[in-house]
Amino acid sequence: MAQTTNxxxxxxxxxxxxxxxxxxxxxxxxxxxxxxxDILQRYMPTAPDHELRVRRINGRRYKVTRKEGIGYSRPExxxxxxxxxxxxxxxxxxxxxxxxxxxxxxxxxxWELDIFKKKLAGLKLIELENVGRDEILEFPRxxxxxxxxxxxxxxxxxxxxxxxxxHGSELKSIDELIQHRLGRCVLTGGPCAGKSTIIALCRVLxxxxxxxxxxIATMVISTMGVKPPADVEARRRFxxxxxxxxxxxxxxxxxxxxxxxxxxxLTDRGALDVVPYFPGGIKEFDAxxxxxxxxxxxxxxxxxxxxVPPREVYEREKDNNPARYETYEQAVRTGRATLQAxxxxxxxxxxxxxxxWPKKQRRVVDLVRQFVDKYQAA
Length: 378
Prior knowledge:
Blueprint: E1 3-5, E2 12-25, E3 37-44, E4 50-57, E5 61-68, E6 73-81, H1 83-91, E7 97-106, E8 109-116, E9 124-129, E10 143-148, H2 155-166, H3 174-179, E11 183-189, H4 195-206, E12 210-213, H5 216-223, H6 232-260, E13 264-268, H7 281-289, H8 293-297, E14 302-306, H9 311-317, H10 328-342, E15 348-351, H11 356-377
Parallel strand pairs: 11-13, 11-14, 12-13, 14-15
Antiparallel strand pairs: 1-2, 2-6, 2-9, 2-10, 3-4, 3-7, 4-5, 5-6, 7-8, 8-9
Helix pairs in contact: 4-11
């Protein structure tokens, strides 16, 4: 773990690289006398890919930590703070997480085993830092791995789980939380690529298990009558607003999916589809939103990119959607920039125009079927 400490402020900056697993603990683990840390922590509301935490350790020491992103590698800043400052932050935060933390040494490495208490009683997670992303691991004695949750469960997720369960969430038990994995697939591409038509077909074919979410930008422009402004700064604010709506609607849709008993979701465009509409592209998107693109990638289990159709098809079909205002040349540039924004996603599929529309549609539907089958069998 790379670390730098500011000697004046006492702030520690580091890149956290860790993997996390849900585990079962054999009772023999506790046969040896072990003294855990007693931890209570809360989270403050922040940007979607950030978390700000205050932690109380053994009832007397307090530490504030800020992390970015989700999963294996995350920038982290932390500093100790005094009792008065910690109390102010704690009073402003959401549901508390309480746990006992055990340091477990095994083959020269120190694992951290968390045994959760009270509303999360029954949950046991173990973490290991400075480990390879795909490294095959040997777990400490009496620790039985159940499932890797590096990308699916964070402590902030657990705090939200407590709040949602208290307000009637469908997920009632810890086992459900660990096993519940809502799949997300994004159908993306340039203007007039056929996304809405394909999603309508998928709604008919897979509607019993698949929730389909419409395009947010089209809703804003067509339903609300709010069009992208010409002024550059106003356009940035507009695209930031569309991005925030996208993330909010996806979160709301997850609640509906759980309520309906479905297992996965297909979205017409995703969070990174706003990138081409920033004048400075990816670099400006990064500077304006300050969102971690790796985190945005991990919101989606599959990305299907559909190519802009040939010119004659585009000119014929563009009038079907009042949100389409681009010339064909602009549409092609937007499509290419959209594909570039999604490059690096581990499960990206590119569907070109070869074979005409029927074959193009069939190839996308086959991918969605594979996606649905995976979560239907889960």
